[in-house]
Write a structure and sequence with these properties.
By secondary structure, the chain is of the alpha/beta class. It has helices at residues 12-24, 35-45, 61-70, 86-95, 107-125, 179-189, 198-205, 215-228, 251-259, and strands spanning 4-8, 28-32, 49-53, 77-81, 99-102, 154-156, 159-162, 167-170, 173-175, 196-197, 238-241, 245-248. 33% of the residues are buried.
Length: 260
């Protein structure tokens, strides 16, 4: 799985180490030293992934993530940070980063995280296969070529999730989701009403749930509620099951059941 990756890191030695390991994996790597150059490079190249240091001159990594998501760019972002407090790490996720690593880190762990982000992102963006047309027959009229059906659009009440197009709508209005938010929502929409533990959702996010805490899921859920709920502080779709996890439901159906 070769990809075009932008690495934004102002520490030359650290940047060289990351570049060497990623190129050894077969990726094409562009290294930049500050946030403003990182933004321009992403806009020009439209890479498959960005590895982004938090502390950089010009514009720091948090500003870069904020701007990329404001521009509706869904490129996966892996943040590197020397800040080890939970609030700092969760802030990066809240702004739209998909994963983070604290320094110092293992280069082998970095490449594993990169592989996971690329695999998960491509799983949601690969087009559905198209069947070859049937051969023509001289004894019967030629029918239209059969097209293999796309991934089923997942519907939970007024919420619709299209895995093949990586699109979400609520009551017909499009909703912009980060790759991490989309993976959580798609997994839950495939099984509405089922209670998903944080461990299960972490596995949906990265496949390496031992690397990060359950708070990562909580931040993604909080952001999703801001986008799909009428009253995010009183959620009716994405509901907390205390002591267990979360479930996705149809608010209209919940009201009918409560009144019956």
């Amino acid at each position: 799985m070769c990809a075009n990756i932008v690495v934004a890191e102002d520490d030359a030695k650290q940047a060289e180490l990351v570049r060497r390991y990623l190129e050894h994996e077969g990726h094409t790597v562009t290294v930049v030293e500050d946030g403003r150059t990182a933004l321009e490079t992403v806009r020009q190249q439209e890479p498959d992934l960005v590895v982004l240091d938090v502390m950089m001159p010009g514009a720091d990594g948090l500003d870069v993530v904020r701007i990329l998501r404001a521009e509706r760019r869904e490129v996966p972002v892996l943040m590197l940070t020397a800040r080890s407090t939970e609030d700092d790490l969760l802030l990066g996720l809240d702004l739209g980063a998909d994963d983070y690593m604290t320094k110092p880190f293992s280069p082998r762990e970095l490449t594993a995280r990169v592989r996971t982000l690329l695999r998960r992102n491509r799983r949601g963006t690969d087009p559905a296969p198209v069947a070859a047309p049937a051969p023509a027959s001289t004894s019967a009229p030629v029918s239209e070529p059969e097209v293999a059906p796309e991934d089923e659009v997942l519907t939970v009440g007024a919420l619709r999730v299209d895995p093949s197009r990586h699109e979400v709508w609520v009551a017909g209005a499009p909703v912009e989701c980060t790759p991490g938010e989309f993976r959580i929502l798609a997994a839950m929409a495939a099984e509405p009403g089922r209670v998903f533990t944080r461990a299960r959702l972490l596995d949906e996010l990265h496949g390496f749930d031992k690397y990060i805490s359950g708070r990562t899921v909580d931040v993604h859920v909080m952001n999703l509620r801001k986008k799909i709920e009428r009253a995010p502080r009183r959620p009716a779709r994405l509901i907390t099951v205390f002591g267990v996890g979360y479930k996705l439901t149809d608010p209209a159906r919940n009201v009918r059941h409560a009144s019956s």
